[in-house]
Amino acid sequence: MDHAIWTFQDLARQINVDYGTVRDSAVYDYFRNKGTNPLEQDSTYAELWRTISKNHGLDYCVSSPSEGIRKAKKSAYAFLWDMSVLEYAALTDDDCTITVSGNSMSSKGYGIAMQHGSPYRDLFSQRILELQDKGDLDIMKQKWWPRTGRCNLNTHAGSSPDGRSLRLHSFAGVFCILATGLLLACLVAALEAWWSSNRCRQEQPKEVTEVRARRPGRWGEDTATLYFKDPNADVSPDLVELQYTQL
C-alpha cells in the first residue's frame, strides 16, 4: 500500500483506494448502524457507509474474507475485517504483500459453544471472565499469537513507517505552546507582585515621631508630639499631641 492510510478518517478522505467488507456480515452491519445513526457525531462513518453500500454492496464489497484478502493483494483495495484474521493473513502471506494498518475498530469477545442448558456454562463463563480480569488472556495471546512469521508486520515493503511515526519535530508546536504559556505566566506573576507592592506602600500608615525636650531638670513639661496619617483621611494628616509627665 503506497498510501499512508492509518485511520478511518484517512480512508474516508482519500479517493485513490477503494474499500469494502464482506456483504451482510457483522462488520457490514457495524458500518451500517454507525453510518445511518442520526445521533452519531462522527461523520466519518456516514462517508464510509456511502461507499460500502453503493449498489447494495455489490460494487466494493466481497462475498467472503478470502476474496477480500485476494482483492487487497491484487489491486488498490482496503479490506475492512477482523484484526486478528488480517494479522494472521499478513503474517502467513506467501508474497508478504499484505499490510495491516490502524487499530481495531471495536472490541469483540469470543465464546465457547455448548449444549443448550449445559450445567457447565456458568462455570466456564466465570473462569473466562476471571482470566480476562487478571490479564491472563493477554499474556497467553502475547505468548502464543505470532508477532513474526513468514512475514513481519512491521517491515512490509509497502508499509510507510513515516506515515504514523512520531518524531521530535512532531511535538514542536506543543513545546512552543508550553513555552509561550510559561512566559505569559511569569509576566503576569511579575506584574501582580509589582502592583501588590505598590498598593501596600500606598496604604501603609506613615508615622513620624517627634520628641521635643524642654530644658533638663524641668519635670512635667516634656512634650511628645506624634504625627500619623489616617488611612481614611483624604486631605491632610491628623495631628495628635500626647503629653506625659515624667516622675
TrEMBL record:
Q: Where in the cell is it found?
A: Membrane
Membrane topology, as annotated, equals: Multi-pass membrane protein
What's the protein called, per UniProt?
Answer: Glutamate receptor ionotropic, delta-1-like
Q: Name one GO cellular component term.
A: membrane
Give any GO molecular function from the UniProt entry: ligand-gated monoatomic ion channel activity
Q: Does the record bear Plastid in its keywords? A: no
Which positions fall inside the Ionotropic glutamate receptor C-terminal domain?
1-147
